[in-house]
Write a structure and sequence with these properties.
The chain has seven helices and 15 strands. It is α+β, with helices and mostly antiparallel strands. It starts with 8 loop residues before the first strand and ends in an 8-residue tail after the last helix. Bound molecules: calcium ion. The site of calcium ion (CA) has 8 residues, from loops.
Length: about 270
């Protein structure tokens, strides 16, 4: 039976090359993705981390977190935890936590003070602003399968966005800046008065930025919709305090759906 209708998230040998899709491209990208088994007891590890570090969360986000969800961003089989703040600007700030050798670490945060509050051993300088768990896209690029996100934010006079790809480096979720665009507008005319671009971390022009972005924006999307819980969906249940936060985390764990259970592709790329 032909299996073109289904993206099987299968096993084995490919994990090394697809997990780090920024590495040199394999000769052929498989139509299926191989996922190892999740770390045993990963749900309890995240719950214990939240319980043990509630005072830090409370201090960093006194109004409470905006939402919590779980996504296996680096395709190593074990989900990362994505926690959104309440969004003081156009987009929400994402904080990403990874389970590394049995310990939970903050690996990305929009908040500078997170570096002093959490163990910063694996904290990346690359962070993410977006407003939906579904904004994290699983795609098949020419270099391999990966999650990526179009991270963006804006003010009345400025706008920026950054394509961020999620690699696994030594078992650690590693956000990588693919390309970055900053625009500044004249408040009266709305015309762009300043612009700045990078691609692969190096200065670029608009075409260089767009060329790097196209690799992801035009890649085959697997159709995976990540799930999470937002506090404003149920303010009574998810209050800013300890009980509300822990309930939100538990509900997000229940809502988590493995890529293996959910992804289908109508027409895998040639
Ligand atoms: Ca993972």
């Amino acid at each position: 039976m032909r299996r073109l209708g289904i993206l099987l998230i299968v096993l084995a040998v490919l994990s090394g090359c697809f997990a780090v899709c920024g590495a040199s491209a394999p000769t052929a990208v498989p139509e299926t993705v191989v996922l190892p088994q999740p770390a045993e007891g990963w749900q309890d590890s995240y719950l214990a981390f939240m319980e043990n570090n509630y005072d830090i969360f409370s201090a960093l986000w006194p109004d409470g977190l905006g939402g919590v969800g779980f996504i296996d961003l680096d395709l190593d089989g074990t989900p990362e935890m994505v926690a959104f703040d309440q969004g003081a600007s156009a987009a929400l700030g994402a904080q990403i936590f990874d389970l590394i050798n049995g310990q939970v670490y903050c690996v990305s945060s929009t908040l500078d003070s997170a570096a002093g509050a959490f163990d910063s051993t694996y904290l990346s300088p690359v962070h993410v602003c977006t407003s939906f768990f579904e904004s994290f896209r699983l795609s098949r690029t020419a270099a391999g399968w990966c999650f990526w996100v179009d991270s963006s934010n804006s003010t009345e006079q400025t706008a920026w966005d950054e394509i961020v790809r999620f690699d696994s480096v030594g078992g650690v979720l590693t956000p990588v800046s693919v390309c970055y665009r900053y625009l500044e507008f004249d408040q009266d005319s709305g015309l762009v008065v300043a612009e700045n671009y990078t691609a692969g971390g190096s200065p670029a022009d608009a075409a260089g930025y767009q060329g790097a972005a196209n690799v992801y924006q035009e890649a085959l999307d697997a159709g995976y919709e990540a799930k999470g819980m937002f506090c404003w969906n149920d303010m009574d249940r998810y209050s800013a305090g300890h009980d509300g936060l822990m309930t939100m985390v538990k509900d997000a764990l229940t809502a988590y759906s493995s890529i293996m259970d959910t992804v289908t592709l109508a027409s895998p790329a040639a």
